[in-house]
Amino acid sequence: MIGAVLGLLVVGAALGFGELAAGLTRATSPVVTVGDALVDNSPPFLMEWAITLFGTADKVVLITGVVVVLVLAGTLLGAVSLRRPALGYTGLFLFTAVGLTAVVLRRADDLGAASAVVVGGAAGAGALWLLLRSARPALQAGGEKKGEPRAPADAEGDTPPAPGPDRGPGRRGFVLTSAGVLAATGSAGALGRFLPSLTGGAGSRGELALPAPAEPLPALPSGADLDVPGLAPFTTPNKDFYRIDTALTIPRLDSTQWTLRVHGLVDEPFEIDMDELLSRGLVEADITLACVSNQVGGDLIGNTRWLGFPLADLLREAGVHSDADQILSTSQDGWTCGTPTEVVMDGRDSLLAVGMGGEPLPHVNGFPARMVVPGLYGFVSATKWVTDIRLTRFADEQAYWARRGWGVRAPIKTMSRIDVPAPLGRVDSGEVVLAGIAWAQHRGIDAVEVRVDDGDWWEAELAAVPGIDTWVQWVAEVDLDPGMHSVEVRSTDSTGFTQPAERVDPIPDGATGWHRIRFTAD
Ligand SMILES: Nc1nc2c(c(=O)[nH]1)N[C@H]1C(S)=C(S)[C@@H](COP(=O)(O)O)O[C@H]1N2
Ligand SMILES: [Mo]
């Protein structure tokens, strides 16, 4: 019993102080690092199984699993330590080694995360020492274990505990020490968790003042928004922008600490910080970002006005070698992304973005800087919290999702969606408004057609757009009798390509198929 309490307190102290160290340096928490490393290095079949079984709760299940393992390990560690303190310290050492391995697997140069693990390990050792010292009289008094065969190396200088005349004082010592360790651990952990989310302070999102663009865009064309109730607005408000990433907790970076390294197959590698980036003259671009996992009719897509520095200019400064066909970017939390160099450099508005929707990037969308490349799905282009860009070759290195069977070059497919009426919704019969969006980023949409009840295709009316990199709203009016109806939509891009009817899954490079909904006219 004492062993279990002692072991759990030691593990708790390691985690609590690890959390505090991570919070102070805004590094990734050791628990999260280990969880991330498990996710990254688990075989794809296991990941798929976990996602099918637990769905979006997979992250909760993973963290719960990590905690259960920690509780078991703690109990064992405590029991062993009482008999053989040296084994206890060895256990803690292994524990720290596991954490450090996870850091190295995630991101070898992440000193913050590594020091959080070391601080945690040291706190665990300190707690073990304190608790063992106070447990000894308790054990001798309680008779749980008589006579220590060997004193722990660290405790050699201690006066041997005098056997207590009664069990009271010995127990009291252990209980008091335990309570002290628990309180210290709890405060450290709580402080560590909440420190990074406290706003204010230099480098926090609230403090970053973005300059006005050196090359501002004109206002959106007046007809970009058709203002049909239920239709996605042309500009997605930041708070409604979809979020997709592998991060267990949202990285909260400090913009004054942020740097971006550009290196690899280049003539002149360099590093740039936020002040320097912001002083360069920023540009704006309207770009619709889409996730490859978006199902037909899905909502993993959003459009906004981005503010940033042209990625192509940044790369040109470094002097990209002609054989460097892949831009391998890495986020602060170790996610990697491979983007075709030629696409980024072909003149489109590829950005190292710092702002969206008139504000600094929200933390969930990559504060303080991310990549955005019009026409490519997010998983091959839109690295959030980006801190490293290395020019490489596709033949030599694979990024995160490519290693897991997803596509390597993934241009966004020509697509369309029905927003109005809502699926299985009810409308008044007679004149019925159909509306939605269509997209084929960097090609542009030429036409959208709809058909009702498998009848003839009718051309919908298109709203205005600022360019070829955004989605476009469409609307059509049809005359309908009361009853159940179906609507289908398909779009044609500026290359003359019309969306195929054939349904394919998002993996490996994006879903296809016509969005179809059913609704009732009363
Ligand atoms: N650091 C990091 N960046 C990332 C990802 C990620 O997992 N980690 N996911 C990518 C994917 S798959 C998509 S679709 C976009 C989503 O960007 P959003 O969350 O801002 O909408 O981010 C991309 N950037
Ligand atoms: Mo995605």
Low-confidence stretches: 143-167
Order of the strands making up the biggest sheet: 2-1-10-5-6
- Provide mean pLDDT, rounded: 89
What ligand molecules are bound, each kind once?
the ligand Nc1nc2c(c(=O)[nH]1)N[C@H]1C(S)=C(S)[C@@H](COP(=O)(O)O)O[C@H]1N2, molybdenum atom
Tally of separate helices: 10
Tell me the span between the first and last alpha carbons: 69 Å
Q: Biggest sheet, in brief?
A: 5 strands, mixed
Percent of residues in helices: 25-40%
Gross geometry: globular
What is Rg? 29 Å
Topology pattern, helix = H, strand = E: HHHHHHHEEHEEHEEHEEEEEEEEEEEEE
How many beta-strand segments?
19
The percentage of residues in β strands lies in 15-25%
Q: What is this structure's SSE topology?
A:
Layout: H1 2-25, H2 30-41, H3 44-54, H4 58-83, H5 85-107, H6 111-142, H7 167-194, E1 259-264, E2 270-273, H8 274-278, E3 283-290, E4 301-310, H9 311-318, E5 326-331, E6 336-340, H10 341-344, E7 351-356, E8 359-360, E9 370-372, E10 386-392, E11 415-420, E12 426-427, E13 430-439, E14 445-452, E15 458-459, E16 461-462, E17 472-480, E18 483-493, E19 515-521
Parallel strand pairs: 1-10, 12-19
Antiparallel strand pairs: 1-2, 3-4, 4-7, 5-6, 5-10, 7-8, 7-9, 11-13, 13-17, 14-15, 14-18, 16-17, 18-19
Task: Write a brief structural summary.
With 522 residues, the protein is an alpha+beta fold. It has helices at 2-25, 30-41, 44-54, 58-83, 85-107, 111-142, 167-194, 274-278, 311-318, 341-344, and strands at 259-264, 270-273, 283-290, 301-310, 326-331, 336-340, 351-356, 359-360, 370-372, 386-392, 415-420, 426-427, 430-439, 445-452, 458-459, 461-462, 472-480, 483-493, 515-521. The chain contains 10 helices and 19 strands.
